[in-house]
Amino acid sequence: MQRIRVKICCISSIEEAKLATAYGASALGLVGHMPSGPGIISNQKISEITKSVPPMVSTFLLTSETKASAVINHYKKVSTSTIQIVDTLENKDYQLIKNELPHVKIVQVIHVLDDKSVEEAIDVSVDVDAILLDSGNPNLPTKELGGTGCTHNWDLSRKIRDQIDIPVFLAGGINSNNVKQAIEHVQPFGVDLCSSVRTNGKLDENKLSSFFHVIQSIHHNK
Fold it and tell me: Could you give the CA distance from residue 168 to residue 155 in angstroms, rounded to a whole number?
């Protein structure tokens, strides 16, 4: 099993970014405007945090824009290393984004609901750099596009993992108690977490420490 990357999402300040990277996060999620969910910060704050992050740590802009032109415009306000598209991109216009932003990685979120999600992930995998499997539901009246704190059906996630050739991040209810099982079951490239390392919305150093202790023990026991 490869070394598991850890992405800490919903980073809200330079201090949180420093804390997450100090414990070993290789990627940080910065949440732009969303219809719902935690961690939403301004474009200015995303830009400030991004500039403070060491070059070896990836910064992910979480955007709920669904048109390629709007995704590009959002990105230009923040200049992260990666764009994480949390909703369905209209007309699958990934090439427009790549043409405009050739240096930027694109990660598409798939909200794992049923077998259609598997088909969707396989279909989109040829157009993006990585897939992130989460537990939202874009079909609700107010879209849930992440940050639910709930797990989903990992059998479906494993099915996706087995059928695509690009990296897969696993998100949705991952915590220190279930991350070992999640990694063994799905064998993702990386895991992504938000609420499980927070207390009252703030990044909690004790919870971070506990989580990374489990991750280190997994790496040590390989």
Answer: 14
